[in-house]
Amino acid sequence: MTRIAVFGAGAIGCWVGGRLSAGGADITLVGRPRVMSELENGLRVSELHGGTKEAKPTLATDAAATSTAELALITVKSAATADAARELAPHLPKRCVVVSLQNGVRNVAVLRDALPDHRVLAGMVPFNVVRRGPGAYLRASAGTLMFEAHDAIAPLSEACLKADLAFELRDDMPAVQWSKLVLNLNNAVNALSGKPLAEELSDRDFRRCLAACQKEALALIKAAEQPLARVTPLPTTWIAKMLTVPDGVFKLLGKRIVAIDPNARSSMWDDLESKRPTEVDYIQGEIVALAHRLGRQAPVNERLVGLVRDAERGGKRDYTGAELYDALGRP
User: Would you give per-residue pLDDT tens digits along the chain (331 residues)?
Assistant: First the structure.
């Protein structure tokens, strides 16, 4: 049985690790003491459409717990990737395969630079996970895990199969990651709305904000000749067009794209709620950085970066759709 360590076990790490553990995998969760202490009586992982599994993974708070791992899943926030790699470097066995299950498009490169003796592969988690109480995590939206196609991913594929956890192997992970980034542009909009995702997306003005972010991003991605992958039932480039339709039409169409738990919120909302730094620099900020590399501007995404940073400092984070649309200049 492959020994798997999940480093940075927050919501995503606990849910994925819990599902794999419930399927019989040898899982060690490495996370903050507060989170790990909540799991001492067990971990419960639930599905969007019902069903709960219980698991008893090994718990740890120090990178030294990865010293016997054959596979390491990295689930820390993007800003912590370099620090995580430095913590892991003295402990990970050279045979250990490292898989990034993080937001953003830079983390695999950061890990490869910092862990040159290890095989580092890309992964993508398309769904939201929310904490429902101590030791309880719910997958709050639909989607299929995606992993970089490589012989070294076989142990993770086998663990997913045993756990009945759907996944795809992809040979176009950069395109997958950029497509996920376009979808993740809603994280900032949701965080500033203060509302659950489903309620936020039911408001046409919030959707106009997201559509403006996505259209700006898509134009820059096209100019950079960066391919995109299809990671939802609709092609990524179609979604921005659909967002601005009237509310009633969107309600009908939205159900065909992705199912969302009515209480689900973005991870960026959760970061603001917990007074943690957000990943906005690795989401909207990535679009701004791309614009600068191309000698262009990304005013909508740049403005959202500023609004989120202000919210991190205690500023406004309960915009109505109309207020946020106005704050972005009604693009």
Answer: 899 999 999 999 999 999 999 999 999 999 999 999 999 999 999 998 889 999 999 999 999 999 999 999 999 999 999 999 999 999 999 999 999 999 999 999 999 999 999 999 999 999 999 999 999 999 999 899 999 999 999 999 999 999 999 999 999 999 999 999 999 999 999 999 999 999 999 999 999 999 999 999 999 999 999 999 999 888 889 899 889 989 888 887 766 666 788 889 999 999 999 999 999 999 999 999 999 999 999 999 999 999 999 999 999 999 999 999 999 999 9
What would the two tokens of residue 154 be? 């076989």
In a domain, 233, yes or no: yes
Cα–Cα distance between 130 and 137 in angstroms, integer? 6
Q: Which residues contact 132 (CB under 8 A, 6 or more apart)?
A: 46, 138
Shared domain check, 201 and 156: no
Does any domain span residue 298? yes
- 230 and 270 co-located in one domain: yes
CA distance 205 to 69: 47
The last residue of a domain, from among 117, 137, 171: 171
Shared domain check, 320 and 190: yes
What's the gap between Cα 181 and its chain centre? 9
Query: Model-level pTM?
Result: 0.95
